[in-house]
């Protein structure tokens, strides 16, 4: 997907339905009036971004996506353009027609061994690629994965991603997916992503993450205790891999050792997977979304349209978004 050249504004797009909502705004389906291509436009309220002290995260997300889109990866959503008006920041992203992976997982309840393996392998390749560029993702969860029309994964939402050669100290992520070193505030690096892969694989196979509680503190206690219980039906090879990923000791956690991602790729669970064929999208996908065309939005849950307040600029003086 090519970037949109020249100055871009909201007037260049025909805005459609809301595809998702978040703390700062919403993602809307859009058609570019000139090239007729479909996009997903992330609209972020500047006032909310400032109130929730996320200015740095937003600027970082834009810069990381811009860097990654210059050398596109088949499983990472591309950024086509960014622009702003007095109230909003806009990120024009590639539109992924198959909907949220989360929806497909919830519909199935849980995935069989081969389906979970197919999708876990995507994430291994995504993290391997990001880590080679010194990016950590830090926010893996089913809601941040999308399915394209062929049933292959694309990762989105780089709001927590960061360029880190060694360690960083910010607490972020979703409670069920937080690694122990993040909770202990010891400083964390690329290893957090491999921990979250272990949680995702478990959730795909069991239908829920390994550490669950109504109270986040209860979840954190379980994570630090590190006790894993597996349903009986889980394949022994994948159980062995999950245990290697969900190790608090970073000197033993798979992905963090000398061979990096290779330890995971060469694990017994993946022995029948052709990694090259996966990258080239030559393997049959276990889930084929029902898609009628490039502009189909039926795989996304319907959201009510927001009632917009009148457009008022929120700054006098220095605009912290001048770099956006």
UniProtKB/TrEMBL annotation:
<dbReference type="Pfam" id="PF00069">
    <property type="entry name" value="Pkinase"/>
</dbReference>
<dbReference type="InterPro" id="IPR008271">
    <property type="entry name" value="Ser/Thr_kinase_AS"/>
</dbReference>
<keyword id="KW-0547">Nucleotide-binding</keyword>
<keyword id="KW-0723">Serine/threonine-protein kinase</keyword>
<feature type="domain" description="AGC-kinase C-terminal">
    <location>
        <begin position="271"/>
        <end position="324"/>
    </location>
</feature>
<comment type="similarity">
    <text>Belongs to the protein kinase superfamily.</text>
</comment>
<feature type="binding site">
    <location>
        <position position="42"/>
    </location>
    <ligand>
        <name>ATP</name>
    </ligand>
</feature>
<dbReference type="GO" id="GO:0009653">
    <property type="term" value="P:anatomical structure morphogenesis"/>
</dbReference>
<dbReference type="InterPro" id="IPR000719">
    <property type="entry name" value="Prot_kinase_dom"/>
</dbReference>
<dbReference type="GO" id="GO:0004691">
    <property type="term" value="F:cAMP-dependent protein kinase activity"/>
</dbReference>
<dbReference type="InterPro" id="IPR000961">
    <property type="entry name" value="AGC-kinase_C"/>
</dbReference>
<feature type="domain" description="Protein kinase">
    <location>
        <begin position="13"/>
        <end position="270"/>
    </location>
</feature>
<keyword id="KW-0808">Transferase</keyword>
<dbReference type="GO" id="GO:0005524">
    <property type="term" value="F:ATP binding"/>
</dbReference>
<dbReference type="InterPro" id="IPR017441">
    <property type="entry name" value="Protein_kinase_ATP_BS"/>
</dbReference>
<keyword id="KW-0418">Kinase</keyword>
<keyword id="KW-0067">ATP-binding</keyword>
<protein>
    <submittedName>
        <fullName>Uncharacterized protein</fullName>
    </submittedName>
</protein>
<dbReference type="GO" id="GO:0005952">
    <property type="term" value="C:cAMP-dependent protein kinase complex"/>
</dbReference>
<dbReference type="InterPro" id="IPR011009">
    <property type="entry name" value="Kinase-like_dom_sf"/>
</dbReference>
């Amino acid at each position: 997907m090519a970037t949109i050249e020249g100055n871009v504004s909201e007037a260049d797009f025909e805005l459609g339905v809301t595809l998702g909502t978040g703390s700062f705004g919403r993602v809307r389906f859009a058609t570019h009036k000139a090239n007729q291509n479909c996009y997903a436009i992330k609209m972020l309220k500047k006032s909310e971004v400032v109130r929730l002290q996320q200015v740095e995260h937003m600027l970082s997300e834009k810069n990381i996506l811009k860097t990654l889109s210059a050398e596109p990866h088949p499983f990472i959503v591309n950024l086509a353009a960014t622009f702003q008006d007095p109230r909003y920041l806009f990120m024009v992203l590639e539109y992924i027609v198959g909907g949220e992976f989360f929806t497909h997982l919830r519909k199935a309840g849980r995935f069989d061994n081969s389906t979970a393996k197919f999708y876990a392998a995507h994430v291994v390749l995504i993290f391997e690629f990001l880590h080679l560029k010194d990016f950590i993702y830090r926010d893996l969860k089913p809601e941040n994965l999308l399915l394209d029309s062929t049933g292959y994964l694309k990762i989105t939402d780089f709001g927590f991603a960061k360029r880190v050669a060694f360690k960083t100290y910010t607490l972020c992520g979703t409670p069920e997916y937080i690694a122990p070193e993040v909770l202990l505030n010891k400083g964390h690096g690329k290893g957090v992503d491999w921990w979250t892969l272990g949680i995702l694989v478990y959730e795909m196979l069991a239908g829920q993450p390994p550490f669950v509680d109504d109270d986040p503190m209860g979840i954190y206690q379980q994570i630090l205790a590190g006790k894993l219980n597996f349903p009986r039906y889980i394949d022994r090879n994948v159980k062995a891999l999950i245990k290697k990923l969900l190790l608090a000791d970073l000197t033993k956690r798979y992905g963090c050792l000398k061979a990096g991602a290779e330890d995971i790729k060469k694990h017994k669970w993946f022995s029948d997977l052709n990694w090259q064929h996966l990258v080239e999208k030559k393997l049959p996908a276990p889930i084929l979304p029902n898609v009628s065309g490039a502009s189909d939005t039926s795989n996304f849950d319907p959201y009510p349209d927001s009632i917009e307040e009148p457009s008022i600029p929120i700054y006098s003086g220095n605009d912290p978004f001048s770099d956006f």
